[in-house]
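Support request, please re-run this one:
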Amino acid sequence: MITQERRFLYQPNPVSSIICWSWTLMVLMLGAIFWLEVTHFNWWTLGLFAAFALLCWIEVHYRNITMANGVLTVSTVLNHHHLVIPLTHVSSVHVSRYRLGLVAQGKIYQFLLPRNSAIELAGLIQAAMLDVVKEERH
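Re-run finished. Output below.
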């Protein structure tokens, strides 16, 4: 069993990612439109650009997958009740280029990760699943 805590940054499934980042990009466009309309320095423009930078940081920093003590914890930006998946409930793992898909607790989850992170996380989950199978046999 893996005892070291591992943390991976992710984006939600492709459709949700497009929707979230489109709203974030709208804040940037609103700031640019306001800046071009006013033509001189304005605190509202600076505030909109700062809000855009803050939203980008929040959307990247608060979306992570943590694997520790046989539990996969998926944190999200808006929902403070994290998704907790015990590795004993994971039935299959599928990795494609930048996507990690897993079936757990009767639901299908998809996450977009960097290629190396997707491969490493899938390997850790599969190793943990093998450890569970070995423990059940003994």
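The helical segments are 14-38, 43-61, 115-137. DSSP finds three helices and seven strands in the chain.
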